[in-house]
Specification:
With 131 residues, the protein is α+β, with helices and mostly antiparallel strands. The protein is built from five helices and six strands, in the order βββββααβααα. The protein has a four-stranded antiparallel β-sheet. The chain has a two-stranded antiparallel sheet with strand order 4-5. It is globular. About 7% of the residues have low confidence.
Amino acid sequence: MFTITIHHLDGPSGLQRHVGYVHVDGEDVQIHDPEGHLDLELPTPTVDDRGRGERRRATYAQDPVVWAYNLPALLRGPYVLAQRHDQTPDWVEQLLEQPQAPAASSPGSAELIAQLIAGSSAAKEAAAEPA
């Protein structure tokens, strides 16, 4: 189990604020990215494949656990930073305890999340319809 926290860095002030997280528990991957910093189609450089097959890059669709584990190698720019935690931070624990939409690893929801992040109006309409 591990958690990746995502921070937005404000250059002039030097402040950072939490903007999302990816929580992995076994094969269950939960993504909380309300500001849309994550692109599930963008491959992460595979620094550690976690013994799940050798590849240089991994997309969410190929292996969500490897993709999530290696997010810090991708999100390390001047404005967005990702950090891996073996212990889930308290603020993420509180969010995980709240009822929420199905996790990104649920069947069919990865595509919906990718469309929502991309700003697709059709995906927003589909998400607004009752199940």
